[in-house]
Every structure is written in structure tokens, then in C-alpha cells.
């Protein structure tokens, strides 16, 4: 449950940061480190505290306790609070729209107010070029497509050379195809420039695709924090496992140090003899075989997912519902009786929560 530490070379450091709103604890003792140029994704259900965390780092909210340090400077802590505009942090928020009455170039120049005019012009031109929107410099926001607006918003955020970029669901207003390409371009650009960024998203696929470090949040806490691959394949909790993508659970009881299930015995370190537990695995960990060669099950239905087909199966022993992914074919796989094998290396065993033990 305790989040794994992030890199030793810490550019942004949060130390036991908490924030309450009346009776609601929006954030409880959040700690992590982020290295320079790294991308952290915050993923979690609505209300888990993602936006509050960004707002505390941005400086539009104050923590009740704890410390926030960026580039060696304490931004918030006991007796210390740096105003948002003095933090050197850029924003790309869903509702942080471009100024409609300013041209693209003026929007980008906005964060550079006070810089000498020649320097300002050069920086605007540079950052528009980097974001691939030089040709749009004289247009106004209403003359831009959704993807172009996002690129301009990114250029505006990057113009003052922020030490950290905060992004709250920045791609969620774009439709799927555009979202993927704008996201890929944005992330490539951030990596090229080497700016550290925190991205809030509801979308596990987005978080897995872009993050160097991925934090799954729940009820004001970081439930799990690691690189996306580790988190997806070896989640520390059942909540994190489920949040990151589909999977099945198979209930059983611990006997002789292993969880005993109809699909095999799986090591259950740390769990007590006789304890109720569940095996969790991803759809790709199951394979079909002859009913005589594996655990017999029935295919109840097939869900067509495009490249893949997800079979929904019911185990004959215990009647548990399981999911299995196969490359899709032209004809759907008909319902019927099959055997199932489970790759033991792809199974995680967790103590059963009360609702999963039955
Ligand atoms: N200004 C506020 N006053 C009172 N409660 C607040 C305030 N801001 C946030 N909260 C509460 O704090 C908790 C965390 O809210 P937050 O907006 O950080 O969640 P979130 O994970 O960003 O949610 P979403 O994904 O829906 O944006 C919620 O219970 C919310 O109702």
C-alpha cells in the first residue's frame, strides 16, 4: 500500500501534503518525488483528489500541512507560501481556455509580459515553431480547430520556460483519433524539451501510454505508484489492478502457502492458512485448450473489440465468470464448451476484500 519512492534525483518533492475541506479529507499525507524531465500521471476515480493535488502544486490552494519543493525551492510549507505566478509552473487545463480576444501570438506572449520586446518576439516565434503552429500566429482562437487550440495552449504554457507543467485532462475535449495524435505530439515535445510534467487523467490507457511514473489515487491517498509496466503487470493492490484495466478474479482459500483455485495453485506469500483470497489476472493470461486438458468452462458470449475478441466464460467448477482475449477473426467464436489454462506467472494473489470473498 505504501507508494514506491520515485527517483533519487528529485526535482519536485511532496512531503506528507494534506488538504481537508470541512469534513472531507481531499488529500491525506501525499509524498512523492519527481525527477527533472519526467512525466507523472495521476489516475483515479472522480473525487479521489487529483485536481486538488494539482491545485496545491500550482499554488491556487494551500496545503493544511506538508511541504512542496520545486527545484530546491520550498513553494509551500510551514510558514512559507509562494504565490502561483512566482512558482515557474505552466498549466494546461481543460477549462484554462485561450483568451478569445487575443491572437495566437498574443496568447503565447501573455505569459511573457514584462520581457524586453525583442526577446519576447523571439521567444514567441520559437515556441510557436516548436509546437508546429507558426502559420497560425495571427489567427484568433475561434479560427482554430480543437487540435490546433491544444497546440497553442501548449505553446503558451511552455513559453515562460516553466520548471514544471501541470496538465488536467488536457485532451479530454478532443475526439478519440485527434486525442491520440495530439497527445503523442504533446508528449514527444515535452520529452524533447525535457520539462517535468504531471498529467491528470481518468483514462487508464492514456496513463499507461504516456507516464514514466503512474500514481493510482483513491480517497485522497496514493494507492500505488510505479512505472506503468510494473503497475499493470504486478499491481500492489486489487483496487489498482482493476483500475488499470480489465481482469478476472478467482476466489479460493490459502492452503499450504498457496491459493487453491479450479485453475491451479498460486503462491500466496504473507497470507494466513485458511484465509480467503483471490487470484487476479489479465484477460491475456488465460488460454483455451481441450476441455479434457484444462479446467472446463463454457463460452457465454464474445465481445468484438476490433483487433481483439474478448470471450466471457463461465467456469464449470464454482461458476465464476472469466474473460479471455484472442485475436479477433471474421466470424465470432460460437458459444460452447472449452478448457482453460492459466499462466501462473501472470497471476497475482490478494487477500479477499469482504465483497470478493463470497
Ligand atoms: N473547494 C472545495 N470545497 C469543498 N470540497 C472540495 C473542494 N474541492 C474539492 N473538494 C472535495 O475534495 C475531494 C477531491 O476533489 P478533487 O476535485 O480533487 O477530485 P478529482 O479526483 O480531481 O475529481 P474529478 O476527477 O471528478 O475532477 C472531493 O470529495 C471534492 O468534493
What features would you describe in this structure?
There is one protein chain. The protein is α+β, with helices and mostly antiparallel strands. It has 2 domains: 158 residues, P-loop containing nucleotide triphosphate hydrolases (Rossmann fold, 3-Layer(aba) Sandwich), CATH 3.40.50; 106 residues, Nucleic acid-binding proteins (OB fold (Dihydrolipoamide Acetyltransferase, E2P), Beta Barrel). The chain is built from 9 helices and 21 strands. The protein has a 6-stranded mixed β-sheet, sandwiched between helices. Strands 2-1-4-5-6 form a 5-stranded antiparallel β-sheet, with helices on one face. A hairpin with a 2-residue loop joins strand 4 and strand 5. The longest helix is centred in the middle third of the chain and has 18 residues. It is globular. Adenosine-5'-triphosphate binds next to strand 2 and helix 1.
Q: How many domains make up the 3D coordinates?
A: 2
- Percent range for β-strand residues: 35-45%
Structural class by secondary-structure content: alpha+beta
- Radius of gyration, in angstroms, nearest whole number: 24 Å
Order of helices and strands: EEEHEEEEHHHEHEHEEHHEEEEEEEEEEH
**Poorly predicted sequence stretches spanning 5 or more consecutive residues:** 4-8
Strand order of the largest sheet: 7-8-9-3-10-11
**For the terminal residues, how far apart are their CA atoms?**
23 Å
CATH fold description of the largest domain: Rossmann fold
Name of the CATH homologous superfamily of the largest domain? P-loop containing nucleotide triphosphate hydrolases
How many strands, which pairing sense, and closed or not: the largest β-sheet? 6 strands, mixed
Amino acid at each position: 500500500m505504501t507508494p514506491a519512492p520515485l527517483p533519487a534525483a528529485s526535482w519536485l518533492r511532496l512531503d506528507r501534503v494534506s488538504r481537508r475541506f470541512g469534513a472531507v479529507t481531499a488529500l491525506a499525507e501525499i509524498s512523492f518525488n519527481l525527477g527533472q524531465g519526467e512525466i507523472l500521471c495521476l489516475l483515479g476515480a472522480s473525487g479521489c483528489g487529483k485536481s486538488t493535488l494539482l491545485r496545491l502544486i500550482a499554488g491556487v490552494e494551500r496545503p493544511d500541512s506538508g511541504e512542496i519543493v520545486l527545484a530546491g525551492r520550498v513553494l509551500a510549507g510551514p510558514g512559507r507560501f509562494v504565490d502561483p505566478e512566482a512558482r515557474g509552473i505552466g498549466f494546461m487545463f481543460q477549462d484554462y481556455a485561450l483568451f478569445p480576444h487575443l491572437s495566437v501570438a498574443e496568447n503565447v506572449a501573455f505569459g511573457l509580459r514584462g520581457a524586453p520586446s525583442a526577446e519576447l518576439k523571439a521567444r514567441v516565434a520559437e515556441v510557436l515553431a516548436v509546437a508546429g503552429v507558426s502559420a497560425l500566429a495571427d489567427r484568433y482562437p475561434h479560427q482554430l480547430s480543437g487540435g490546433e487550440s491544444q497546440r497553442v495552449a501548449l505553446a503558451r504554457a511552455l513559453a515562460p520556460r516553466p520548471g514544471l507543467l501541470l496538465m488536467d485532462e488536457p485532451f479530454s475535449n478532443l475526439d478519440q483519433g485527434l486525442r491520440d495524435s495530439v497527445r503523442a505530439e504533446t508528449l514527444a515535445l515535452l520529452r524533447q524539451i525535457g520539462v517535468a510534467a504531471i498529467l491528470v487523467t481518468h483514462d487508464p490507457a492514456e496513463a499507461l501510454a504516456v507516464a514514466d511514473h503512474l500514481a493510482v489515487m483513491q480517497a485522497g491517498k496514493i494507492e500505488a505508484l510505479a512505472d506503468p509496466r510494473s503497475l499493470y503487470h504486478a499491481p500492489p493492490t486489487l483496487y489498482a489492478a482493476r483500475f488499470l484495466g480489465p481482469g478476472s478474479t478467482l476466489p479460493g482459500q490459502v492452503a499450504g502457502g498457496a491459493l487453491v483455485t479450479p485453475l491451479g495453485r498460486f503462491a500466496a506469500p504473507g497470507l494466513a492458512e485458511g484465509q480467503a483470497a483471490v487470484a487476479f489476472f489479465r484477460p491475456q493470461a488465460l488460454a483455451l485448450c481441450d476441455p479434457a486438458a484444462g479446467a472446463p468452462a463454457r463460452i457465454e458470449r464474445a465481445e468484438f473489440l476490433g483487433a481483439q475478441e474478448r470471450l466471457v466464460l463461465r467456469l464449470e467448477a464454482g461458476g465464476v465468470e472469466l474473460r479471455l482475449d484472442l485475436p479477433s477473426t471474421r466470424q465470432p467464436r460460437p458459444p460452447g464448451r472449452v478448457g482453460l489454462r492459466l499462466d501462473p506467472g501472470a497471476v497475482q494473489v490478494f487477500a479477499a476484500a469482504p465483497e470478493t470473498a463470497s
